[in-house]
Amino acid sequence: MIKKELMKPGILLYFGLLAPFAFWTTTIICGLMIEDYNHFKWLVSELGALSTPTQELFTIGLVLSAILNIFFIVGLWKICRKHQLSLAPVLLLMLYSFIAGPAMFPMPLQWHGLSGLPFPLIILSPLVALVVWSKKEKLLKIRTTAIISFSIMLLGFLIFFPSILNEYFGLKQRFLYAGWTIWSVSLVISLLKVSKLKT
Description:
Layout: H1 2-6, H2 9-12, H3 15-33, H4 55-82, H5 88-93, H6 100-104, H7 111-114, H8 124-132, H9 137-140, H10 143-155, H11 169-195
Helix pairs in contact: 3-4, 8-10, 10-11
């Protein structure tokens, strides 16, 4: 009975809040454990690099975040199917869970970068949602947050332009996570309302 209750779409959506919470809590705590760590200058992955005092905690936290995201996706999937919403934005958001790869293959291992390659494509989720859910905008009301989250995630790609904010590589990287957080939270709020509608 408990398992059945937990798998209800409305309950599963709350994992969309827990996944970002697990990520940010992990990075903040690990950052505090490393002397002189600077979130604006250092990469997130440096918190879990080989032989760092935070390697195990970082790995556990990010893998947990990836798993929580999967439960969130299941909830999104169920609600979208019930209300005949395109699943494309949901499938793209699923790519966040690839963050578990770089966590399990810490820097400087070769698989560190390769295992997380699909992850940045989460930026397409709000963009695709604007297109495929356009006819449901009055129901979902996600246009503004989709534009905001996409714009913030887009700033994350400044990492490919070293001359811009050259001393703040960590900040540029975190734009992607910030945009993902805003998008996930907005979907939780919007689809919780939708899940309560009778069909």
